[in-house]
Structure formats: C-alpha cells, structure tokens
User: Fold these one by one.
Assistant:
Number 1:
Amino acid sequence: MNVQISDVSQSNGKGGLPKIDITTHSSSAEIYLHGAHVTKFQKTGEPPVLFMSQSSRFQSGSPIRGGIPVIFPWFGAREGHPAHGFARLQDWELTGGSDVSNSSVAVRFALPPSDATKEFPAFAAEYFVTVSDSLKCELRITNKSQQNFTFEDCLHTYFQVGDINQISVTGLKGAAYLDQMENFARKTEANDQIKINCETDRIYLDTESTVEILDQKLKRRIRIAKSGSRSTVLWNPWIEKSKRMPDFGDDEFHRMVCVESCNAAENKRTLAPGETSSLKIDLSTAPL
Ligand code: TA6
C-alpha cells in the first residue's frame, strides 16, 4: 500500500489484518482492507456511529461482524456459496486517497480479480470512502464484459444505538417490504416511527428515502441518506438469532440496528456492457 496521505496511518489490526486509520479535526475512522470494511466512524466527543461486535472474527474467509459490510454480487443466501457474496471476504487494494480539505479525507479501494470473480461477467468494483463530520461511502460497479451483468449490491451498515427499546426508525412509511420472518410475505409499512421489539428482517422495496434512527437514550438522530439504491433493509437479530451467531454476543442486539442501503431482490441491478452503477450513502448525526 504505497498511498501516503496525511492523517492516514497504515498498520496491522486485529487478526494481523492490514487496516488504515483516518483522523480529521472532527472525526476518526478505521477501514480494513479485508472487505474494504469500514469498522469505525466516530465524531469527536460522540459515541461511535457504527456498531462492532466484540465477538467479530478478523480472519481470511470470514466476514467482519459490524461496521459496513460491502455486499456484492448477491444479497442473502446462495446455494453452495457464502451468504451476501464474496466482496466482503476478499482483500481489496488501497488505490488512492487525498486530503480533500483539512476536515475531510478520501480514500479509494479496488477489488482485484480472484477465483470467485471469474464466475461472473468481467467487472470492475471500486469503493470510495470520505471521512469528515459525516461518512460518505460509494460502491461503483462497471460492467467490463460484452454481456448484460445482473447483480445485487448493498452497504450493510450496523449502527450503534443506546438501547434497541428506546429507538425508532423513520422514513419508510408506505413502502412495500418483504418480511423475511414470514417467508418473504409482501407487506406495506404502516408506521411513521418503526419500533423494534422482536427479530426484525425486512427488505423495503422501491424506496430511495432518507431513513433516520431516533435514539432517545443517546439523544441523537442518525441520518442515512442514499442515492443509487432502491431497497432498504431493516434488521435486528433479537434474542434467539443472536444466540445462533457465533461471532455476535448474545446481548449485543440491544445496542445495534442494521439499516442497509441496497439493490436487492426485485430491485437487483442489470448493467449493459460498459455501464457503471453507483450506490452511495451519507451518514450523519445530529442531537435529538
Ligand atoms: O441483512 C439482513 C440479513 O440478510 C439477515 O437475514 C442476517 O442474515 C444478516 O443479513 C446477517 O447476515 P450475515 O451473513 O452477515 O450473518
């Protein structure tokens, strides 16, 4: 990694995996090359924005549990393959970066070809992360083949909350969703403020809305703005699924919620030869 940017240091993190640490005058972030995985974003003087499991694995072939998993080229389960695609399991290359200003640092990653990528039409996958008083992430996929390329992509963000029982999620009222807890039954969101009090696993469809997490305990709102994303997934594993996840603490569901910005299920994407897609999120906080 020969990228030299002020405020960016490179080191070996957990499990000896290479990572970069970024500091700005108002925030700090941490990104592992494994999966180009943002594992930390925190504004100075505030609790972390991203949740990280204390039981996460940091090893080749395993996903990191928490932060922002980069999901591509499929979402969810796939017969004979790891769930959520291979992008989060591969080592990405740090290909560039710059001090956008004294309060913002941008870095860029690329997914190198591998045995896993060869099963798919030729593509280029690039990931851009900009750290400032907000966190902006962009996943760009370019179809380098001579055929259409259909895939799903998702920034599967884990957010830290003070207490799952004291949050609500807004911005999805009226959206259709597939309820994975009822065999993907199709429903419509009736609530302006969604409360979570059981295992929740929903793929909201055809929505480009900004979502907010209103956290009464931390007295904070987290705003998830997005573009190039037609689906939003809302997930909390609650009690029983938490116990079934070896890389997730039994009681960690109290302090996290996933709001994932995706193109999944019937919102999957198709790129014509030479076309490029862009999935962007902009994460920010404000006092409640
Ligand atoms: O995004 C929700 C979901 O698909 C859930 O069904 C749950 O499986 C979660 O992703 C985590 O998946 P993972 O493969 O990271 O354990």
Number 2:
Amino acid sequence: MDNCIFCMILEGKIPSSKVYEDEICIAMLDINPATAGHTLILPKKHVQDLTEMDEELGGKLLMVAKKIGLLQKEKLGAAGFNVVQNNGAAAGQTVPHFHIHVIPRYEGGPELAAWRPTEPDKEELNVVLKKLTE
Ligand code: 5GP
Ligand code: ZN
C-alpha cells in the first residue's frame, strides 16, 4: 500500500534489522525499543489492524510471536516477554499496518507503562456485561 512505512520496509525501500522472515511475515527490531531486543512482527500483506485480520494469518502470526519470545529468552537472556498489539490511534497504534510487539523483559529491567486498575462495583460491571452480551 502506498505511503505505508511498513509496506516500504517490506519492499526493501527502507532498511530494517530483520530477525526472522518466512512466506507470510517478517520480524524486525523496533527502532525505538522499550527494552533491548524489542521486535515487531508484520505480515507481508497490508492489513490495517486486527479487525481486518483473517483467522489463518492471525494464528500464524501469533505462533511467530511465540518463536521470537523463545529466541529472546534463549539468546538474549530474557526472563519473560510481553506480546502487545495496538488497534487504532486511540489505542496507541501509530503505524496503520498490523504488527505485534514482542518485548523481552529482564530481571531488574525497566517498569513498562501499564493500565491503572479501577474498582467498579458489581452494578457497573453488570451494565457493561449487559451491553456486551445482549
Ligand atoms: P504502534 O505504536 O503502532 O503499536 O507501534 C509502532 C512501532 O513501530 C513503534 O514502537 C515504533 O518505534 C516502530 N517504528 C516506527 N517506524 C519504524 C521504522 O521505520 N522501523 C522500525 N524498525 N520500527 C519503526
Ligand atoms: Zn502496509
């Protein structure tokens, strides 16, 4: 797709640090990593976000995330890893070409921003549940 920075990377027009490649995707190092080894997995097909993803491709990409996480543990000494995937600008998606972040976590490594838990009462939870299920 024109004007898509990740499509340009996939076409080789912009250089990238490729960690892994197969027929459906590449995995490359993030240029602004949260931790050392932070990797992005992008499908070769331009898919904007999860709402446009089909089951087969999505399933395969998740298994590539597993492969990359295992690699980070084995080769980088990560103690764990986060799999993060943002959909839409409101959710923090800055590049509108689907991608999965695999972020290695190290013992004593930096805290990463997370949500602040809230404490709704049962009634408030039920309002949401009703909206989602009726
Ligand atoms: P998002 O915020 O859309 O979930 O994540 C986009 C990610 O892409 C960011 O973590 C950002 O650092 C990374 N990124 C943006 N442009 C480039 C680029 O040209 N090359 C690489 N390797 N990563 C990029
Ligand atoms: Zn694209």
Number 3:
Amino acid sequence: MQKDALIIRPGRPLEGSIEIKGAKNSVLKLMAATLLASGTHTIENVPKIADVAIMSDLLRSMGVTVSEIVDGCLTIIVPAENEVTPRAPYELVEKIRASIVVLGPLVARYHRCEVSMPGGDDFGHRPIDFHLNALEALGASFETSHGYVSAATPGLLGTRVVLEFPSHTATDNVLMASVLAKGTTVIENAAREPEIIDLADMLNEMGARISGAGTSRIEVQGVDELKPAHHRAISDRVEAATMAAAVALAGGNVTLVGAPSIYMDMVLEKLGVIGLTITVTSDGLSVACSERLHATDVATLPYPGVATDYKPFIVSMLSVAEGVSIVTENLFSGRFKYVDELRRMGADIRTEGHHAVIRGVPRLSGAQVKGTDIRAAAALALAGLAADGETILTGASHIERGYEDFPGRLRAVGADIERL
Ligand code: EPU
C-alpha cells in the first residue's frame, strides 16, 4: 500500500461549515507577478498546499526570499534586478506545470530567461505555443534546446495580440509581460476567468494600467516600473464546488464560508439541477441535499462556462444520479482517464472520444482506486462517500497539491475520511 493513501467510508450526512481557502490558480500567478518589482510583497489568503510550496521553491531558486505561510499570509522579497537569476529549472517546472507563468514576468523585466519546457499532464497533451506566439508578438525571441526555452528581448513593445484560444495561463503570461512593455497592448480573445481579474487587480495595485480584465479584450498601457504588492487573493471557486459535491454525495447541509458565488453562476445552476439546494448567504453559500441526485447533461467550456476542473466531481455525482447523463469535455483530451477508476467502484459510464454517457446507479461500491491528478483524485475520494464499504484511494498526495487539509476539513463536518 502506498503511503499517500486515503481511506473513505460512507457515513452520516455532513453538517457544519467549511471555510473556503484562497484560489490556487490565482495565488500561483500572483506569486509569479512579484518578479515584476523589487521589494517586499505580501499576499494574503494563501492556501497551505503543495503547489504553493513548489512555486515558493521556484522563486527561491531564482534568489527571491519567500516566507512560510503564517495565518494565510505569504511575504515575498524580490531583490534588485541584477540579483535575480531568471531561470526556472527542470526539477521544479516538472513538478508544477503552472510554473510556466514565470515566463511573462521574466521576459518583461529581466529581458532574458531560461525556462524548462513543461511536460504533459496526466489528462493530456499541454503545449505552450499560444504563450510563445503571444510573447513573440510583443518582441521576445525564443530558442528551444536541451529541454529549455531561452528567451531574449531588447525590451517588449506593446501590440495587438490575438489568442487562438482563450487559454488561462497564456493570458496570465501576456498580461504580466505587457504591463512593462512600451506603449499599448491589446489582448483579444483573452481568458475571462475570475483569477485573471484577481491578477489584473494586483498588478494595478502595483502601478500597472490594465482595463478590461474579465472580458475577452484586455487593454494595457505599459509603465516603466512597478512597486511591490499587498494583495488578498480571491477564494477558490473550484474548492467551493468540490465541497458542494461532497454534500451532494454524502447528503447534509453545509455552509461554505467565503465561497465566491459571484464567479460560480453556471456551476451553481448545474448543481441545482443535479439536486442540491443552494442559497447564497452574506458570507458564502449554503448547500443542502437530502434526496437522490438527478441526471443532467454538462459540457465544459472556458469561463463563464462550466470549468473542466469541476467535471470530475460532476461525473462522480452523476454516477449515482437517477437517469442518464452526457458529459462532454471540450478542453483537455485525456480528462476522462479517471473514469476507469470510477467504473471499478461500480459506476456505469461509457466514454466515446470527448463524451461520457453516465447511467446512474443507486450506490457505488467501495474499492481500491488510484488518483492521477488533483481534481480526479478529489473526485474519487468524494465518490467514496456514496459507496458501500471502504474506498482506498492511492495517489492521494495529488489532492494536497490543490487542497489544504482535504481529509481534515471534510472530517470536521462529519465525513469518514482519513489518511492511511
Ligand atoms: N493550449 C494549447 N496551447 C497553449 C496553451 C493551451 O493548445 O499554448 C490548449 C490546451 O492544450 C487546452 C486548452 O488550450 O486544450 C486550454 O488550456 P489552458 O491554457 O486554458 O489551460 P491552462 O492555462 O494550462 C488553467 C488551469 C487549469 C485549468 C485550465 C482550464 C492554472 C495553473 N491551470 O490551465 O487548472 O484546468 O486552465 O480552465 O491556472 C487545476 O487547477 O487542476 C488545473 C489543471
């Protein structure tokens, strides 16, 4: 048995409240953005997760001082420009694909850098051509050799960048590069995710001049210099949806304190159709479920559509829903791999290309299953709440990459889930 395993048993309905932590996919970019200004930066609402620890190590490897997280607060001290080593080594990039977001700030401020090429992910091929094409349009040139992308520029110049697809991290990279480019940059077909708005807010607090973040057209007036940030990250909509799915699968009534409901319209609508009673409260969301779930069809899309990150939980829920559902994945080719594990738990799911047909069964059956990425592992753990007998989830350390104390926080509302 692997050390990083969780054991999950079905139990009583969940009751109480869960505090939703800061958004992983915001905090990692905010950390990269500190490279744009020397001095002491403070980021609040930082979750204690493995990806933040790896991103901290990556910044440290460049000569940046990164504190431990104290009460959700991270202090980052970026030294003078000539004391930063603009290099992201393979050993760290290989552990966290999101580290590609250091490329934009490094090119913009240090005018040269070397970043290891990120590999694929368990859920498919993940190229970086959109990032490189967009940064090239701003005046960077790239060479790829020995697994590294080397970038150089005499200084970036603002221009109109049209993204082929509203890629989240490509938008992050162009945004962070353009704030120090000379003149005006317009990013067309930009990603509209709430975490992009958060990044733009922090950059504006640092002195950048960005408008339109959260729409598909972002305009940036370049400035010569930025000052250090003091920023509070938004809360994690994916974590909030994960905890709502836990309530759907175990039953109960839980308040998700701090859940960013304004950024969750589409997923909340789907969760309502599936059978959750959701109330937006002054401090977050209240979610309750007391009956069998209902089937529905779901297709993943870039924000404001239903995010691909929600899909594994949705599939777990639909596995035990009354009726037949069709789930379509439009972003990542391999993001149905974990379905084989759900089948081992008795789910009746047939996949065909990027579609899954799910015939709901009344209960799943606890089994030994393996998680292979953050969301898939969390979704399998939650499926264990609706399965008879014990579910043993190996590969559970993937969950720690994106969720602070996942088993402990679920246990606090009554779930029977613990580390082996
Ligand atoms: N794509 C390209 N070329 C590129 C970039 C993307 O072909 O240069 C393709 C991808 O292969 C994919 C699509 O474009 O088919 C969309 O990918 P996107 O670039 O938007 O994804 P990402 O920026 O790499 C972020 C999140 C993911 C989340 C996706 C989709 C971060 C660090 N990661 O990835 O989050 O699934 O957007 O919303 O922000 C997670 O949190 O577990 C996670 C994987």
Number 4:
Amino acid sequence: MQIAIDGPAAAGKTSLGRALASRFGCLFVETGKMYRAVALGAERGLPLAEIDLTIDKNGHLFLNGEDVTDLLHTPRLDEASSKVATRREVRERLVDLQRRIAAGQDVVMEGRDIGTVVLPRADVKIFLQASARERALRRARERNAPDVSLTLEELIARDERDRTRDVAPLNPACDATIIDTDRKSLDEVISEAQDLVKERLRER
Ligand code: C5P
C-alpha cells in the first residue's frame, strides 16, 4: 500500500501522514526532511556527491551518519531547502532514494511531488490545501513565532518557488483527492482520509 500526501507548506501533511501511518501500519516518510538535510549539508560545505542520507523506521534522518532530525526545522532551512529543491540533480538523487525506500513496503509518504513524480501509481493520493493565512497561523503557533505576518510572507515566497520551479512543480496529481482543511479540525481531515484508504482497500 502506498499513500501519497502532497500540498503546500504547513497544510497539515505531517499530522495527517503520521495518523494514517499509525492507523494502517505503514512506514511514514517526510520527504521535506531530505531536502532540508541536503541544504544543511550544503551549508556545511558538502557537495551533493558527498551527502549520504538514511532514515530509520522512526523517521529519524541521518546525514553522513549523524542524526540531524532536530536541526532541520528552522526558518533558515525552510528557505535554503526550498532553494536546493529547485535543482534537478538534487531532485533526481532524492526521488531515487524515496522510491527505493517505498519499494516493497507499505508507506505513507508526504511532500510536494509524491503523487505526481515519486509514486505516480500510489494507491491513494491526497492533496491538502488551506489558505495561506490559516497555514501561517498554524506554523507560527507551532514554532512560537511572534510575528505571523513575517511567517505569512515566508510561506508565500516558499509556495511561489515550489509552484513555479521547472522541475516537479507543486501541483495536485490529476487523480488526487483534494482536501481543503481551512474549516476542518484535524480529526475531520483524518477521518476523511481514512475513509479514502478504506475504500481503496475494499476495492483491492
Ligand atoms: O515539507 P517541508 O516544508 O519540510 O519541505 C521543505 C522544502 O523542501 C519545501 O519548501 C520544498 O521546497 C521542498 N520539497 C520538495 N519536494 C518534496 C518535499 C519537499 O520540493 N517532495
């Protein structure tokens, strides 16, 4: 079983992905962490060819053997990761790694291009969306950021870069189910997504 979750920053992909992975016994893979780790490697002066990434079953990410999971979610790497994510050679490396992880096991994978590029034959494809304002409020709350308008500006810049890049731009797959999370609680979104997965399991 492959479940693909895509959508813009702070749309709720991680909370939904974690819940579905636990409910259906799948490995949960946050592909954004990989782009963040490549950006961290670049900051440390590592060329792409010298970057080795691995993840463990708990979703911890190792950069050349070092567990960097707790270093990845900073405003600096928000921006740097979205810049490295425009590079074709970076995407090729990471897409290949993501497909190898997904091969032969049940996964919930979340990112920007999972349903369109990484796992185009995924059993379930979900595209989460929410207004930029709502996403900025959630992100600012999550990070205890005092200035929501700055968070909003950063999110809009990142979305724009993700949507307009030449390689694998952020787009719902044509067979994705779009869930708008603006006026829904997390439980409602999880329940809607679980119904989609159950329906697909019945069809198989
Ligand atoms: O999901 P997250 O915010 O951690 O992702 C960081 C950045 O990595 C995103 O802004 C996006 O530019 C990039 N990304 C991507 N494709 C993915 C996952 C993330 O381009 N599948």
